[in-house]
Amino acid sequence: MSSSEKTRTPVTIYGQHYIITGTETSAHMRLVAELVDEKMREIRSVNPNLDTGKLAVLTAVNAVHEQIKLQERLEHLEQELSRLKE
Asked: What are the backbone dihedrals phi and psi of residue 47, each rounded to the nearest 5 degrees, phi first?
């Protein structure tokens, strides 16, 4: 598949069916959906009274937080690698 070719992948997230369209493989998009579903269920288990909208926002906030932490860790490791190469 070329990088511009779109794939349509049916997924279920938190009981809702979606068609995700993207240039990644179907396996990748299913994995993303699975991780979102898991995170939503994890947050719901701690906060059972959240409505779906708030649950979705908290899931997004958690995902972005994790992404920022990983980016910071990557930058730190890249700096450490550069330092060791000198």
From this structure: -125, 75
Query: Which residue, 37, 17, 16, 59, is CA-closest to 8?
Result: 17
For residue 2, is it within any domain? Answer: no
Residue 50 lies in a domain: yes
Count of beta carbons in the 10 Å neighbourhood of residue 40: 20
Does residue 48 belong to any structural domain of this protein? Answer: yes
Do residues 59 and 40 make contact, with C-beta atoms less than 8 angstroms apart? yes
pTM attached to this predicted model: 0.83
Domains of the chain: total: 1
pLDDT tens for residues 23-81? 999 999 999 999 999 999 999 999 999 999 999 999 999 999 999 999 999 999 999 99
Instruction: Identify residue 13 by its one-letter amino acid code.
Output: I
Using alpha carbons, select from 20, 17, 24, 23 the residue that is nearest to residue 9. Answer: 20
